[in-house]
Design brief:
It is a single chain. This protein is of the alpha+beta class. The chain contains 27 helices and 24 strands. Strands 16, 17, 18, 19, 20, 21 and 22 form a seven-stranded mixed beta sheet that branches. The protein has a six-stranded mixed β-barrel with strand order 3-4-9-6-8-7. Strands 2-10-1-11 form a four-stranded antiparallel beta sheet. β13 and β14 form a beta hairpin. The longest helix has 44 residues.
Length: 857
């Protein structure tokens, strides 16, 4: 019997391929991820380590620095081919506030150099510097420019103004270099030249390259006499290979969390593959019911049939897993070649044999697990089934009392957990709420709800089809046949749609979460970074300079407002006050003056209610004093005067620029504020980095060399936050796309098997006058209906749980539904699932009606 089953499976390689296609895709994705991790780690090791491959020995000074005399002595030791001194420092740009440049000592050429020259030349004299690409782009520095650096002063030297700490050094930029080990704006020069700039003695480290045939151990022995400390101990000597291994480990560790996250999404994809495989085996076994019934007739018992079908599933898993691993292995080795042709550089991966074997065995286990339920069901076929058509059992619509009871129990448990969570939602600002426990219960509730969906799916298909199929029935007989084809096999339709629903639920929930997180971040940035630039001076109540109150002059404010590269230039004043013993900051910034102000959403009251005697307070004051809109608040000024006001609105976070209170200019005067503006907020006139750079240069030119004026580029904070969210969105949606891909494969597989099963039906339709295009359209609509059913179920599951998760995170962020994106996902999925049925539809349309009517299966 086992030989009969295996021979029957191998005699239909097309069905065997379709049965294991989802497992093949899952194996390809899992092993492809292993290859991607290897490529990422090897590329990181090869490109981003700081110690050159040629360095055989690294000497570390620790507390004692390595002197120039010791460096020269090392160079003279027999067996030493080259010595490179290293030093690191950080400096500020003298002309540009809040702009920093890392400095690193490097020879610039030779085996021990860590940089490659891109443009210009490498420094070969004093007060010369080369910069990397990051510094050239961010600081707008090109070869030939002269740049002032505030260099830390070492030893007993003094700065130019007689103070200790820093001195201004003007250097000439000679070239642009590329370096593998840094990600910040960095300048390079020989270590001795950098030390001379700051009057610094010695180096914390030197790299030593040995002559051919000289080992690191031999070098250590020869160098020990040179680096003997006064207390008799030696400096630390570390082989270059050891340093490179530690650097590689540190570089690779940064990707560990990313690949752990990927593993979680891969687990979901494997679950989806198992569900698709279960559905596919059920279809295949339904088509072979007459054969299985005949085996029962001649004496095969149920256990024998289950074991035979399980072995068949194991064979499918072995073939699919092996094929998926081989395809991923080929893709892994092709990636560096393709990258090289595109001008990129990727390292070739090794052959992870253990991982390959594990993936193949995992594919076998997943497939065997997927085959057990349909095998047990099919093995229970009655011998009388030999007298019926193959599709009779497939068309049965009931799910049985036991399955119904389990489904209802799962539904009640999921709803009960959700009700508990809804009844204990945290209040905004509740810092004592345990979000982790709530999120874990949410995941459990969602899992139970999905299991309930799997169990009760056949009961949900018909009412959903009644609604979703209504417009299709208006298309005539073809649409009616398409709806009937799906509704005629509700178990099959439910099995496929549930996998699609899993992908849609995850994607839609992620989209809702990202949109809400983006909205929350936009609201926070509207307060923290309300504009691209903040030009400010140091202002406090009562502070005077030469008898005049300090601050930005009205002339400077007018000139800034007239700069053509700026837009929305808004002056503001600021002062310090206290409320019930709490220190606070008050500003008179008009909350409607800047475009970002529209993102400020009050918790209570309205921003438009701000007027004389009214104040908008931050969440810190509102929570600390238990206030809401309409309450009274009393401020105490620096002169001990009191100002009583009414709360117009409360904010969920801090106010713009971190202010605790926003008032009108007249009320700020009562608080003792300086009459001169504390600063000006402004945006670049146009979008883009180039326009922002031009606006920054225009501001610096307008302000001039005034050390009392500070320019903060708030847009960079916004860019960093948006980049982080964008990275999370791309990574999450890309990984969740694997689940959708497997779901689409399941739709294509089921449609293909259904076409084989209904070959005679297709022939009859062709004989009755349905053309090839009509038949293709019919089958395409059926495949698209799987997408419709899965999309509706997925949105119904994903969006509510996404809302619940957002509320439990207690960010104080309102739920934002990206309607356009959700609609695009739904329509796109319907379109893709319809395309998945295109190949089976073309095959069905090519079969002659005479041949189709003559088939026995």
């Amino acid at each position: 019997m086992l030989r009969t089953q295996l021979a029957g499976a191998l005699a239909r390689p097309g069905r065997l391929l379709m049965t294991g296609l989802s497992v093949l895709v899952a194996a390809f994705v899992v092993f492809g991820t292993v290859m991607a991790q290897q490529i990422t780690e090897q590329t990181t090791v090869d490109r981003f380590r700081g110690t050159p491959e040629a360095a055989d020995l690294v000497v570390l000074g620790d507390d004692d620095v390595i002197t120039d005399a010791q460096t020269k002595a090392v160079q003279a030791i027999p067996g030493v081919a080259e010595v490179a001194a290293r030093t690191e420092n950080g400096v500020s740009l003298a002309e540009v506030s809040r702009r920093y440049l890392e400095l690193q000592g490097d020879p610039g050429s030779g085996p021990l150099s860590r940089v490659r020259l891109v443009a210009g030349g490498y420094p070969d004299g004093p007060l010369e510097l080369a910069v990397n690409r990051q510094a050239s782009q961010r600081l707008d520095i090109e070869p030939g420019d002269r740049v002032g650096l505030l260099v830390p002063v070492g030893g007993d030297a003094e700065a130019e103004d007689g103070t200790e700490g820093t001195r201004t050094v003007t250097v000439t930029v000679t070239g642009v270099v590329e370096a593998n080990s840094d990600r910040e704006a960095t300048g390079y020069a020989p270590a001795a030249a950098l030390n001379a700039m700051g009057h610094i003695e010695g180096y914390p480290r030197i790299d030593v390259r040995a002559e051919d045939g000289v080992s690191a151990e031999a070098l250590t022995e020869r160098l020990s006499a040179v680096f003997q400390r006064t207390d008799g101990s030696a400096f630390e000597f570390v082989p270059g290979a050891t340093v490179r291994a530690e650097e590689a480990r540190a570089a690779v560790d940064q990707y560990a969390d990313v690949f752990r996250l990927i593993a979680m999404f891969l687990a979901i994809a494997v679950v989806a593959a198992a569900l698709v495989a279960t559905s596919t085996f059920r279809v295949v076994f339904d088509q072979r019911l007459r054969q299985l019934a005949l085996l029962r007739t001649i004496g095969a018992h149920r256990g024998q049939l289950v074991r035979a079908l399980a072995v068949e599933g194991a064979l499918v898993g072995l073939i699919a897993g092996t094929a998926g691993v081989l395809l991923a292995l080929g893709a892994g080795y092709a990636a560096p070649v393709i990258a090289d042709a595109a001008g990129l550089s990727l390292s070739a991966p090794a052959v992870p044999v253990v991982a390959a074997v594990a993936v193949v065995l995992g594919a076998v286990l997943v497939t065997v697990g997927a085959v057990l339920a349909p095998a047990t069901s099919a093995a229970g076929v009655s011998p009388l089934q030999t007298l019926r058509s193959a599709g009779t059992l497939a068309g049965e619509r009931g799910i049985g009392r036991a399955r119904l009871g389990i489904g209802l129990l799962l539904t009640v448990c999921a709803a009960g957990l959700a009700a508990v969570l809804l009844g204990d939602l945290p209040e905004p600002g509740d810092l004592n709420y345990d979000s982790v426990a709530g999120l874990m219960l949410t995941v459990l509730s969602a899992t139970l709800a999905f299991l309930a969906l799997i169990t009760l799916g056949p009961l949900l298909v018909r009412p959903l089809l009644a609604a979703a199929g209504w417009p299709l029935r208006r298309l005539g007989p073809t649409g009616t046949l398409a709806v009937g084809g799906i509704g005629g096999a509700p178990r099959r339709a439910a099995a496929v749609s549930v996998v699609v629903a899993l992908g849609v639920a995850l994607v839609s929930g992620t989209l809702v979460g990202i949109a809400t997180l983006q909205g929350h971040m936009d609201r926070e940035l509207a307060a923290q970074a309300p504009a691209d630039f903040d030009v400010s001076g140091t202002v406090s109540a009562g502070e005077t300079t030469n008898g005049k109150v300090s601050g930005l002059s009205t002339d400077l404010v007018r000139r800034l407002e007239a700069v053509p590269e700026l837009a929305d230039a808004t002056a503001y004043r600021q002062t310090d006050v206290s409320v019930s013993g709490m220190e606070a900051s008050a500003v008179d910034l008009d909350p409607t003056a800047l475009p970002s102000s529209r993102l400020l959403r009050p918790v209570s009251g309205s921003l438009s209610d701000l007027g004389p005697g009214e104040v908008i307070v931050s969440s810190r004051l509102a929570r600390g004093l238990g206030m809401a809109a309409g309450d009274s608040i009393t401020f105490t000024t620096a002169n001990k005067d009191t100002v009583r006001m009414s709360v117009a609105a409360t904010l969920p976070d801090g106010g713009p620029l971190g202010a605790d209170a926003i008032v009108t200019p007249g009320d700020l005067d009562k608080m003792g504020a300086s009459p001169l503006p504390a600063g000006v907020l402004a945006n670049a006139a146009e979008s883009g980095q180039a326009a922002r750079n031009a606006a920054e240069q225009a501001i610096r030119k307008t302000v001039g060399a005034n050390s009392a004026i500070e320019l903060r580029i708030l847009a960079e904070e916004r860019d960093d936050s948006e980049a982080d969210i964008e990275m999370v969105a791309i990574l999450s949606l890309g990984l969740l796309g694997l689940t959708v891909l497997i779901a689409v494969v399941g739709v294509g597989t089921t449609t293909g098997l259904t076409v084989l099963e209904r070959t005679r039906e297709s022939g009859l339709l062709r004989a009755l006058g349905l053309g090839r295009s009509g038949l293709r359209f019919l089958i395409g609509m059926e495949a698209g209906l799987y997408g419709v059913l899965g999309g509706v179920l997925g949105l119904a599951l994903g969006v509510p749980y996404a809302w619940l998760s957002v509320r439990l995170l207690n960010l104080g962020a309102p739920l934002l539904l990206p309607y356009g994106q959700l609609l695009a996902v739904f329509l796109g999925l319907v379109f893709v699932t319809a395309l998945a049925g295109l190949l089976p539809a073309r095959r069905a349309a090519r079969v002659s009606p005479v041949v189709a009517l003559g088939t026995t299966e």
